[in-house]
UniProtKB/TrEMBL annotation:
<keyword id="KW-0539">Nucleus</keyword>
<dbReference type="GO" id="GO:0003700">
    <property type="term" value="F:DNA-binding transcription factor activity"/>
</dbReference>
<dbReference type="Pfam" id="PF11951">
    <property type="entry name" value="Fungal_trans_2"/>
</dbReference>
<dbReference type="InterPro" id="IPR021858">
    <property type="entry name" value="Fun_TF"/>
</dbReference>
<protein>
    <recommendedName>
        <fullName>C6 transcription factor</fullName>
    </recommendedName>
</protein>
<dbReference type="GO" id="GO:0005634">
    <property type="term" value="C:nucleus"/>
</dbReference>
<dbReference type="GO" id="GO:0000976">
    <property type="term" value="F:transcription cis-regulatory region binding"/>
</dbReference>
<dbReference type="GO" id="GO:0045944">
    <property type="term" value="P:positive regulation of transcription by RNA polymerase II"/>
</dbReference>
Length: 233
């Protein structure tokens, strides 16, 4: 975690100059699509707690096997295995900063093996952290991974699968590394709507509880950035 936090270019606690990533039309289009999907899902009638899907519930075994095959194929391309290792070694410990159970380090990679959308979200966040750390200005692998995560997220949102909550929060972390607080504020608001719709809070237990507190930290970060921006005028 120390190496992740030590470099100003890779730490979400610092402000970075905007790079070409946030100006890419593909990013802007998928960012808006993600926001619309989140709000539409949150606004639909929530299922009862008994009927709510469980994390990683992908139905029949053949679907689970297909998902696992898809994640295996995804990791065989380019630097993706490197991105996964970087997530476990550097990114996840930051997300788990106040979680002694290390849900993002331990549970998320296991869940991602059978959830391609979650895997792509993890890879996108890790790739983005490496791009910021290396001060890349062009050729962003994270953009392609971000777009694929959103594409795969759509059916999960329609099915109201609880896995959408960690996926959306992880993608929000990516946006926090990429854009101004004003630009990712709506994603934070969308996550809040999802938490409310699915009745997830800081006492839900397990991964969902860890995800909630990760989101809460981002909310505090946004509030502090907004407050200090007001103080400059």
């Amino acid at each position: 975690m120390a190496s992740f936090m030590a470099d100003n270019s890779s730490s979400p606690s610092n402000s970075w100059p905007l790079d070409q990533f946030v100006q890419d039309p593909g990013y802007l289009a998928y960012q808006e699509e993600l926001r619309c999907l989140i709000f539409n899902t949150a606004q639909t009638a929530a299922p009862s707690r008994e009927a709510s899907p469980t994390l990683g519930n992908y139905g029949p075994t053949d679907q689970e096997l297909a998902a696992q095959a898809q994640t295996k194929t995804a990791l065989a391309s380019g630097r993706r295995l490197e991105y996964l290792k970087n997530y476990v070694a550097q990114v996840a410990p930051w997300l788990d900063m106040f979680d002694s159970n290390e849900a993002f380090t331990v549970q998320v990679p296991v869940l991602a093996r059978s959830c391609p959308a979650l895997l792509y979200a993890v890879l996108a966040l890790s790739a983005r952290q490496m791009e910021r750390k290396e001060a890349r200005q062009h050729s962003f692998d994270s953009l392609e991974l971000y777009q694929e995560a959103i594409r795969l997220l759509n059916p999960l949102l329609q099915a109201r699968d609880l896995t959408i909550i960690p996926i959306c929060v992880i993608l929000c972390c990516l946006e926090m590394m990429s854009a101004s607080p004003q630009d990712w504020r709506r994603h934070l608001e969308g996550c809040a709507a999802l938490f409310d719709s699915f009745d997830v809070n800081g006492f839900s237990g397990g991964l969902l509880q860890a995800v909630f507190w990760c989101y809460a930290r981002m909310g505090l970060y946004y509030s502090s950035k907004f407050f200090f921006s007001l103080c400059r005028y």
